[in-house]
Amino acid sequence: MKFKKRILYAAIILLVLFIVNIFISTGFFRTIKNNFNGKIIAKINIAGAEDITISRIDSFAIVSSTKRNKIPNNEQEIGGLYFINLKDENFKPIHLTKNFKKPFAPHGISIFKKDSIYTIAAINHTKEGEFIEIFTLLKQELTHQKTLKNQSILSPNDIVLVNENQFYFTNDHKYHDGFMRLLEDYLGLEISNVVFFDGKNYKEVANGISYANGINFDKKRNLVFVASPRKFLVKVYQKNNDNSLAFIENIDCKTGVDNIEFDKNDNLWIGSHPNLLHFASYAKGNKETSPSEIIKINYKDKGDYTIEQIYMEDGKTMSGSTVAVPFDDLILTGNVMDKHFLILKTINKI
């Protein structure tokens, strides 16, 4: 009997420790304090602007938008890509994909310029499956080139083009649903990955990641950065000549990092979720708001970096921040489900 009681007590202790670990590891006890040295200059009425990227050369932004709020499970989410001229202070969005006839709910996006033409790659979540859509953009005319489908495109989240034909993308889960999917989310199982597409073939180049999310490529330093929000990490990899990735280190960001963008000095700017449990409840419609955070990482070398909080708020102005893109003294910051995204203005140019 004493032995059975000991087993029972040990099981209870382990369960308590497990629950406490979930709360601690997801930022549940973190204090949220509004902080930003600047002001909001525009609210752009595009719903679910989950990812944003820019061309500094031609001064425009591409916005990935999908209406996710209050969509019934049996209906296809609807979204689009938008063009915004950053030199026009009206920031009027132009819908680029209004004539795209296929189901389209874009998530992560990437752009690459060759000569005068931009290639745009977009993750596309549909009820029929997961796809990667490839477009070309000339001035403000978008043309669909192809749809990519492969068993390696399992649960795609974000993508980064390294040229007009090749790219890396992240799968944020290994399992689509069921008990293992639940364990991935709450235990933070490190079983998601990064895949490279060479124009013909798909190859896993990194694994052992908990919820692989945002990804970006620093061409100058030949580094690939991958966000692991469930572990509050940015994972740093060296890109090898054969496009495989060599792990360098983890950056502990202490927040649920999402999409990764660069400023002109190659600092990383990341929209983040400081409380993942709160965000999960918000995403399911159980809470009205969710905190937002933007961080900047000045990465110099292995073990030599600084992390600066640029923006934090309780979610009443913008909930569930996912991306932050600096441009001069502006920051374009997107989110998961709000009806609009924000353009912030800082005191100094970035």
Q: Can you characterise this structure?
A:
It is a single chain. By secondary structure, the chain is mainly beta. The protein has one domain (31-346): 6 Propeller (Neuraminidase). 12% of the residues lie in helices and 49% in strands. The protein has three helices and 25 strands. Strands 1-22-21-20-19 form a five-stranded antiparallel sheet, with no helix packed on it. The chain has a four-stranded antiparallel sheet with strand order 2-25-24-23, with no helix packed on it. A four-stranded antiparallel sheet has the order 3-4-5-6, with no helix packed on it. The longest helix is centred in the first third of the chain and has 24 residues, at 2-25. The mean pLDDT is 92.
Rg (CA only): 20 Å
Distance between the termini: 67 Å
N-to-C order of helices and strands: HEEEEEEEEEEEEHEEEEEEEEHEEEEE
Largest sheet: 5 strands, antiparallel
Helix share, percent: 10-25%
State the CATH superfamily name: TolB, C-terminal domain
How large is the count of helical segments?
3
* Helix/strand/pairing category: mainly beta
CATH C-level label = Mainly Beta
Overall geometry: globular
Low-confidence stretches: none
Can you name the CATH architecture? 6 Propeller
| Annotated CATH topology | Neuraminidase
On the 0 to 100 scale, the average pLDDT is 92
How many domains, as an integer? 1
Major sheet: order of its strands? 1-22-21-20-19
In percent terms, what proportion of residues is strand? over 45%
What is the number of E strands? 25
